Amino acid sequence: MKIMKALVYDEYTVDDDFSKILKIKEIPIPEPKSNEVIIKVKAAALNYDDIWGMRGKPLAIPLPHISGTDAAGEVTAIGTDVKNIKVGDRVVSHGNMSCRVCKACTDGREFDCRKRTIWGFETGPLWGGYCEFTHLPEVNVVKIPEGVSYDEAAAASMTLLTSWHMLVGRAKIQPGQIILIMGGSSGVGNYGIQIAKLFGCTVIATASPDKLDKLLELGADFAVDHRKEDWHKEVRSIAKKIPKPLGDVPGVDVIFEHIGGSHWNKELTLLNYGGTIVTTGATTGYDAKTDLRHIFFKGINILGSTQGTRAELEQGMYWMSQGKIKSIIDSVYTLEEASVAHTKMLKGKGLFGKILIKPGS
């Protein structure tokens, strides 16, 4: 039996001291089921669901647990029923695991599948990306195109997919629109800025004051400090000054939202009549109060969004291979340094882009 290293925890943390529970263990290298591929993991990326998993909240995930939804690597073995992936292929995970046969799945909405699970978060025991070798169904991997590295692909796996689905799949952005990207320094925010620019939109992005210059370097047309009490007034002032060649009333057309909390009502005030806010998270609080007048009087569209389709990940990867979208990588850690990496993600201080873990050579 061949053995590999894996980052494992057997219990939940109650105080976010990840070093107490994260251990490097030796476990058997998996064998592929008939529909699966085995991947030698070259790079994996951190997500906030790693922290939820270690807390056991909001879901009591399976124990013992290996986290890691975003993994990129080389295929080393395939099952007997695998048709389109071969040994030696460079692949990245599509972490949205669905039944593939229900009405939602066969309608191209696998993100709405009632049996959907997030690989590396809800799966297990011992089934995620923070290990030397992992296994996935053929349908849950995407070939990495030429010109995209393992690091770039791992960083993009969930966050690029999420951002693409929010803006393209759900909000259906159009050239010439004014897009407000909240939290532009985050992983999803980084990609949100680039996707909006790819579609010919004007981008206003927000972040803490020390990260505003980086938003502009990434392609944002304007950058605003959302920690200011009246940040929304600055956004409104900017939007009014942007020329609208089609004669539309100046204002924000689409808001890319994953912050929630006290920002919610301020965001609603910024939208044009018939504008759209698309949300995929609530990092500052989910219990937001809503002034309904903004919604019904202006005919605002509120869209929820989560994950995305395998095809959308392939679309995003294509544009990465064309140099139109890039992964912003903040830092890289080893498996042994995982507790430091997760603490950095939790605190967020100075963080810009994605954090990676390298399981081995």
From TrEMBL:
One of its GO terms (molecular function) is oxidoreductase activity. SMART domains: PKS_ER. InterPro entries: ADH-like_C, ADH-like_N, ER, GroES-like_sf, NAD(P)-bd_dom_sf, Zinc-ADH_QOR/CCCR. The keyword NADP applies. Residues 20-357 form the Enoyl reductase (ER) domain. Keywords: NADP. The keyword ATP-binding does not apply. Coiled coil: none annotated. Signal peptide: none annotated. PANTHER family: QUINONE OXIDOREDUCTASE (PTHR44154). This is Alcohol dehydrogenase. It comes from Candidatus Nitrosopumilus sediminis.
